[in-house]
Amino acid sequence: MDCQIVDTERAPAAIGPYSQGIAFGSWLFVSGQLGLQPETGELVSHDFSTQARQALENLKQIVLAGGGALDKVTAVDVFLTDIGNFADFNEIYSEYFSEYRPARAVVEVSALPREASVEIKCIARTGE
Length: 128
Known about the structure:
By secondary structure, this protein is α+β, with helices and mostly antiparallel strands. It has two helices and six strands; from the N terminus they run E-E-E-H-E-H-E-E. Strand 4 (about 75-80), helix 2 and strand 5 form a beta-alpha-beta unit.
């Protein structure tokens, strides 16, 4: 079984030496996503909510490109530069994960690349 690189133009290109995602068997590992515009690779806004929605949308597009779906996501890790945004993030997150709720961790970090406010990564199943 070989690893396959997942790459889609519907999400921003990697900003370092890594892939948007890696598929291995029936598992998909999605790299951390910032609120970057896929077309430009720039932050969509300095507004937390706008960044969070874009980061989740980027994550979703990579999951779809890898043959998965949001209801096949098993674990999500979220990094916030201000834990005070936790409640706002939960509200936005529930727009993507409402009925189905994967395991999740949220931690505060001192900084993120590109001065982003949020980064999100996940693991998903792609097979039955």
